[in-house]
Amino acid sequence: MAANKKLLFLPGDGIGPEVMAQVRKVIDWLDNRRHVSFELEEDLVGGAAIDAHGTSLTDATLDKAMNVDAVLLGAVGGPKWDNVARDIRPEAGLLTLRKDMDLFANLRPANCLPSLADASSLKEDLVSGLDILIVRESTGGAYFGQPKMIEDIEGGQRAVDTQVYTTAEIERVCRVAFDLAEKRSGKLHSVEKANVMETGVLWRQVATEIGKEFSGIELQHMYADNCAMQLVRAPKQFDVIVTDNLFGDILSDCAAMLTGSLGMLPSATLSGADQSGRRRAMYEPVHGSAPDIAGKDKANPLATILSFAMMLRYSFDDGNNADLIEDAVKNTLGRGIRTGDIMQEGMELVSCSQMGQALTEELDKLAA
Ligand code: IPM
Ligand code: MG
Asked: Which of 131, 161, 179, 253 is catalytic?
């Protein structure tokens, strides 16, 4: 692999900094033991950036994000910033990164590791071995459509969000999903509300059209409400799901919880490939900033570590080291080591930093 892979770390708020610190242990390990090195820069995002600069994402930080090979983000937000203006609130920084970096394909895997199958709120046999990948469109739809406003009208106010999609926007995210389905089980569910929404009608039409380029893929259309129901009824019927920004937000939380812990789930958000095949990319855990346990060394760092593994796989084509990290996570859990969020009877409760330490020990064993 080429040297000098440039990374931008944006730890953000709450538990962000402490979980990111555990990724540094993995990076040091890769450097020492596998001769894989990164050039690391760190900057502020979210509430931390509001405190320092008065905005959740400065132009300088955005500029850095645009020019590195990959961004790793911890988490943003917290009660401290609940009352700041909408356009500078912590979440706005995250949405600007997605939009301005044109990161339209948000990949959210939900895997149920065997050692955690009984932590799910669903019956163990429904979720054990579960392996779903949600591909969420992440730069369009109701999140960004214009007009978007609250206006005063007689007797009250009127709020507007606009759900809007173009053929091109649907096409590019569907292509990513079909490509991934091809590398997995060959099954793809395209999810919308074509029974009620015009964007759903177009979505279904475009997905069907793209499907003709992928003759080996079994494409099924499903309404979003039915999908939510099927996810909790019989989740193993799904492999890859492609859907819009808002449905993807909701369905990915739902899929996440099937696995037993939000603290375990990574994600990747990718742009299209440029002529040299390079994609801009941001990786982040699905969980939030968990202000209640922030700074207490209690958080589960595994979602962030697994996000880093996704980075190795998707941004640096390094499946070997990604596999190694994923195996180390499985083995660490297999040894009975647990942070508070996934603690079970008879297991060993550890801190965030101890989990990071245990993981590097497993990496040592695997690499021996
Ligand atoms: C997510 C989050 C974000 C979203 C918030 C923090 C803006 O819920 O990444 O799923 O709604 O996209
Ligand atoms: Mg969400």
From this structure: 253
